[in-house]
Amino acid sequence: MSQPLTIEDLRVLAQRRVPRMFYDYADSGAWTEGTYRANETDFAKIKLRQRVAVDMTNRTLASTMIGQPVAMPVALAPTGLTGMQHADGEIHAARAADKAGVPFTLSTMSICSLEDIANHVGKPFWFQLYVMKDRDFIARLIQRAKAAGVTALVLTLDLQILGQRHKDIRNGLSAPPKPTLANILNLMTKPRWCLGMLDTPRRSFGNIVGHAKGVGDLSSLSSWTGEQFDPQLNWDDVKWIKDLWGGKLILKGILDPEDAEMAVKSGADALIVSNHGGRQLDGALSSIAALPAIVDAVGDRIEVLMDGGIRSGQDVLKALALGAKGTFIGRAFLYGLGAMGEDGVTRTLDIIRKELDITMALCGKRDILDVDKSILVKGTY
């Protein structure tokens, strides 16, 4: 098999190797999936200015995200069920990120636990927090994150209630997954995935089972998760979490300038312009379309990051040109993970790095920190 050259190559391979219910979980959006599709297609509308006869030597992609040095302004986004794309998926992704010199963010709804990442990777990482009704569980989870060496807390604000995702409903995706005939037949066509899962004990939500009250196994997990996302989440809760955590805080899920102003007032270190990968409010703006107004609203009072629809280094460059200080990739690395495990995540990051470097050069820039709107064609953004 030839080496994958694009994120799309990895997606096609992942679709062949990952069971349908878990591939669809990663590669789907809410309702009509209009916002999910717009996250990608809106990048294509933005055009780049090609420059010539400029010195393109000695280029650098080095930057910082919330004060942390990064090899390029890209982080692995928190994604639920990552360990179901590939056995021990979060461990493999964290290792690949560490090798690439970029941050890895573990999801609350991960298969591998905080302690798994700390024990098997041994390098600082970031942790994404969902706010549950059980505030005692949340307080203990934050303390576990501290003990695991987490250096930044990413607080997700846009999942107070779960958006309807039709593919998950049709596939019977639940905790545990429903053993329908269709799912069993599909699993039989994925021997590589099945063998990997048989070889690991990590097949449940590692941060929850055995830690949340009344959740000792998979059978009790489904009802707990269905009841626990807190629709009453508000800015007072953000303050409580900020005070309890005491470290770097990033607020994820900001899509409106008014909410961006609230994020500034909260004292958080950064915000992520995000629509949850198009998995929540279908019909919302794409992340890249929402980015400029939020950058204009907050200026340099808070660091602006973004995620949603990034499938290439060119997409990263366009987000930086429109004012983001860093970007997150979710599906792009999940495709790599599902396709080739840790090597696939490494391949994803290599593809994005090369595309970012070459595109930056062809736009006449040598330092990623010098990228701004001047590299874009006016009227296309």
Automatic annotation (TrEMBL):
Stored SUPFAM superfamilies: FMN-linked oxidoreductases
InterPro entries xref list: Aldolase_TIM, Alpha-hydoxy_acid_DH_FMN, FMN-dep_DH, FMN_HAD, FMN_hydac_DH_AS
Entry GO terms, CC: plasma membrane
Binding site for glyoxylate: Y25, R165, H276, R279
Cofactor(s), names only, from the UniProt record: FMN
Protein family (similarity comment): Belongs to the FMN-dependent alpha-hydroxy acid dehydrogenase family.
The protein's name in its UniProt record: Alpha-hydroxy-acid oxidizing protein
Organism: Bosea caraganae
